[in-house]
Specification:
globular; zinc; CDP-glycerol diphosphatase activity; manganese ion binding; six-stranded mixed β-sheet; single chain; binds the ligand Nc1ccn([C@@H]2O[C@H](COP(=O)(O)OP(=O)(O)OC[C@H](O)CO)[C@@H](O)[C@H]2O)c(=O)n1
Length: 320
């Protein structure tokens, strides 16, 4: 038996395939700082975490691809350095011996508009859309959602999606600072400017992909920067319309696991339909010398996350 971060791996059973994971690198060439809540953030060290991740992923010699769960560069990155900083992190991912799949987070959008960001991240896009799917094996499909589809950040200020997001925030959050949850209660605390929603068109696309996956008997892993289940941790981190997205997902039986970032301390929950929700611990909040990245072995009946250091290992077992 081998052990990684408290998890005893099942020997003798070959995974169908394996992939690497990392989230919230939030690199910036600036001194250490802290979050709004006072949690230390190590902006220069986070690129070293990514470098060690890539080295480990390459050494494993079995990973088919890696997934970056967003927030590649921090919002405090001086804006004249944003382009270089994003390019620098993308280049680190290119040192991995295989494809990297990226998604956008709020901090990406504080740095660059969508039209610049999406080509750099190699996100297949039409009219600024940042959702897509891919199928690494015939029996599995990955769906990458764009949690900032309806958002007050990232689109031009007069774009209909910006206006829709601002109107929504105006209705849902009475604070002058729309990033502040003061006075919002329970799950209402997600109605913050640093979050966003999945729009109507993307929702229809998601429905059609899940319908197709069901027809093809594929199991689906949903990836989104923003968490989709209130059971995982902080309500402040949730996608605005996580409930509508989950209603679509729950229509089908094909989604087995939802993976996300954004809520830096990480978490794991299983929802009422037996779907695992795993929020990944942030690379940014690793004190120097420590790490937060991992890889996932995919089987017919489970996804097994082997985490390094601050990333907890998690066995996600489901009904095949
Ligand atoms: N209670 C808060 C929290 C944050 N802000 C301000 O909102 C902006 C973004 O916050 P930040 O912590 O940098 O966002 P992250 O994406 O790194 O992390 C998301 C959280 O972990 C989700 O729980 C920033 O300007 C903050 O100062 C705020 O006003 N009030």
């Amino acid at each position: 038996m081998g052990s990684a971060n408290g998890l005893v791996s099942v020997q003798g059973k070959q995974p169908l395939f394996s992939f690497g994971v990392i989230s919230d690198v939030q690199y910036a060439d600036i001194p250490n700082g802290q979050s709004f809540m006072g949690v230390p953030r190590y902006y220069r060290h986070s690129i070293l975490v990514l470098q060690r991740a890539v080295q480990k992923w390459n050494n494993l010699q079995k990973l088919k691809f890696v997934v970056n769960f967003g927030d590649i560069v921090d919002g405090f990155c001086p804006k004249d350095q944003s382009l270089n900083a994003v390019q620098k992190i993308v280049d680190e991912f290119k040192n991995f011996d295989g494809p990297s799949y990226h998604m956008i987070g709020n901090h990406c959008l504080y740095n660059l508009p969508r039209n610049m960001l999406l080509p750099l991240l190699n996100i297949p896009s039409f009219e600024g859309r940042a959702y897509y799917d891919f199928s690494p094996t015939p029996t599995y499909r990955f769906v990458v959602l764009d949690g900032y589809d309806i958002s007050a950040i990232g689109w031009p200020s007069d774009h209909p999606k910006t206006l829709e997001a601002l109107k929504f925030l105006q209705e849902k959050n009475p604070n002058l600072d729309k990033n502040s949850p003061v006075g919002l209660v329970g799950l209402e605390r997600r109605f913050l400017m640093f979050n966003g929603a999945v729009g109507k068109e993307q929702m229809e696309w998601l429905d059609s992909v899940l319908q197709d996956a069901t027809k093809l008997k594929q199991k689906v892993v949903v990836c989104c920067h923003l968490p989709l289940d209130p059971g995982t941790l902080s309500p402040e981190a949730l996608l605005w319309n996580y409930d509508e997205v989950m209603d679509v997902i729950h229509k089908y039986n094909c989604v087995k696991v939802c993976l996300s970032g954004h809520d830096h301390k990480g978490g794991h929950s299983i929802d009422s339909h037996g779907i695992h929700h795993r929020v990944l611990e942030a690379a940014l909040e690793c004190p120097p010398g420590s790490d937060a990245f991992g890889y996932i072995d995919v089987y017919d009946d489970r996804l097994t996350l082997s985490g390094t250091d601050r990333m907890e290992s998690t066995d996600m077992i489901f009904n095949p």
